[in-house]
């Protein structure tokens, strides 16, 4: 196996690593690499921070391990290699009446990455997290090949879902897809005039898929305004695909200055009529709206950006509102901000979801943003919430361990599965996650 010295980064482009990467193409090659050079596995590096980085070490690039191994058209059960992307699964199976039960905001996420972060989607309040639809996972550690399911090697399975790749290299997974009537979406958009209206619309939604875009520059009576998007899968005439765009250069700093963001957000809010509107969209346009803009992370300039995402319990909506007030007053956020209501579904010890409200906001990488995110972290902990490791680049280890009460159980399982700590990444070391307490 050829190892190539490579510089790579998380999607936020703030943290970088230089490591030797191998790209196996067959199961036997992957097995040989794990046996001789155990190290973390990575996918398309769509986690925003340092979850996939291993600076100064080695990593296994799984993106060529992307085959469909088996599919049962009657039950919707599919077995795949871990490097296949969610977008590819949707494109292959939606026309055949099946869809991944949970899809994150990008179709470029690999199945292995979705398991490692136990990702959630716009239907979390109905379908729970990705790991709850995983029927089995095949893990490679040294010369061992272990199959874990919710009932067989159940403790290892739970430590793997949301386990940041620390229980072994995920080679294969068996997934339960959900039936879908077609490959289009019926989408309804409505304005939320302020915070209370936004929360009420999220709470009252009966739609299968529901997400809110929130204007993080709005203040005063308009604080929390945004657009609620609800959707259902449907059969119908497939809309014409939109052409892809590419960001060829890093954008200048003024491109996301506060006046520019305020003007964009105002226009984006008002593009939806006061009476609302309905439309038909392609599946990928609804689930992965930013994937049509390749390298959109370059819009934040060469310094990159941080994404802050937290979740707080339902009875802490006022605490989240206070965070939004702090964000609006700071004048640092970008147009990309999302508010959703989550259910209780989670599959692993370190899975992010809890029943409550989740807020995700992008900030250009500036010193003031680091200070702001530190304050938001403290407020999240005080509210009994938690931060999402797939998005984190700045959290502290004691805070994360306090936010995840099952962390100690996870530590026992991962240190048993990987006693030599060969699978540690920069994030794991930064947060000292492999140590209890």
TrEMBL record:
UniProt keyword annotations, A-Z: FAD, Flavoprotein
Record protein name field: Decaprenylphospho-beta-D-ribofuranose 2-oxidase
Transmembrane annotation, as ranges: none
PANTHER family: D-ARABINONO-1,4-LACTONE OXIDASE (PTHR43762:SF1), L-GULONOLACTONE OXIDASE (PTHR43762)
Source superkingdom: Bacteria
Pfam (any one): FAD_binding_4
InterPro entries to which the protein is assigned, alphabetical: FAD-bd_PCMH, FAD-bd_PCMH-like_sf, FAD-bd_PCMH_sub2, FAD_lactone_oxidase-like, Oxid_FAD_bind_N
FAD-binding PCMH-type domain residues: 14-180
GO MF annotations in UniProt: FAD binding; oxidoreductase activity, acting on the CH-OH group of donors, oxygen as acceptor
């Amino acid at each position: 196996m050829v190892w190539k010295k490579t510089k790579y980064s998380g999607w936020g482009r703030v943290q970088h690593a230089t490591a030797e990467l191998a790209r196996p193409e067959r199961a036997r090659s992957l097995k040989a690499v794990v046996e001789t050079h155990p190290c973390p596995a990575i996918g398309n590096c769509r986690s925003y921070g340092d979850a996939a980085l291993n600076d100064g070490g080695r990593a296994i690039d799984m993106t060529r391990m992307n085959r469909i191994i088996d599919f049962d058209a009657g039950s919707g059960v599919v077995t795949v290699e871990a490097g296949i992307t969610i977008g590819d699964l949707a494109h292959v199976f939606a026309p055949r009446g099946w869809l991944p039960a949970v899809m994150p905001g990008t179709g470029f996420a690999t199945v292995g990455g979705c398991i490692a972060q136990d990702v959630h989607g716009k239907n979390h309040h109905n379908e729970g997290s990705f790991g709850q639809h995983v029927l089995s996972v095949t893990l490679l550690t040294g010369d061992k090949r272990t199959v874990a399911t919710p009932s067989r090697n159940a403790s290892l399975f739970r430590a793997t879902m949301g386990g940041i790749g620390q229980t072994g290299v995920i080679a294969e997974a068996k997934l339960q897809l959900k039936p879908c009537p077609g490959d289009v979406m019926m989408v309804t958009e409505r304005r939320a005039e302020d915070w209370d209206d936004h929360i009420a619309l999220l709470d009252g939604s009966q739609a299968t898929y529901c997400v809110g875009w929130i204007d993080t520059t709005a203040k005063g009576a308009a604080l929390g305004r945004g657009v609620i998007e609800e959707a259902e899968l449907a059969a119908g005439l497939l809309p014409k695909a939109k052409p892809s765009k590419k960001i060829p250069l890093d954008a200048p700093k003024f491109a996301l200055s506060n006046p520019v963001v305020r003007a964009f957000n105002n226009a984006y809010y008002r593009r939806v009529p006061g009476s609302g509107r309905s439309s038909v969209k392609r599946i990928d346009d609804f689930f992965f709206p930013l994937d049509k803009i390749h390298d959109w992370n370059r819009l934040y300039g060469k310094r990159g950006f941080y994404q802050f995402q937290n979740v707080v319990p339902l009875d802490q909506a006022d605490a989240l509102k206070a965070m939004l007030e702090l964000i609006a007053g700071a004048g640092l956020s970008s147009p990309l901000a999302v508010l959703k209501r989550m259910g209780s579904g989670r599959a692993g010890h370190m899975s992010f979801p809890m029943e409550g409200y989740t807020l995700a906001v992008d900030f250009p990488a500036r010193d003031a943003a680091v200070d702001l995110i530190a304050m938001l972290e403290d407020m999240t902990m005080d509210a009994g919430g938690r931060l999402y490791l797939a998005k984190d680049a700045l959290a502290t280890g004691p805070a994360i361990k306090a936010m995840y009460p099952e962390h100690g159980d996870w530590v026992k399982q991962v240190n048993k599965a990987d006693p030599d700590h060969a699978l540690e990444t920069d994030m794991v070391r930064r947060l000292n996650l492999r140590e209890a307490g």
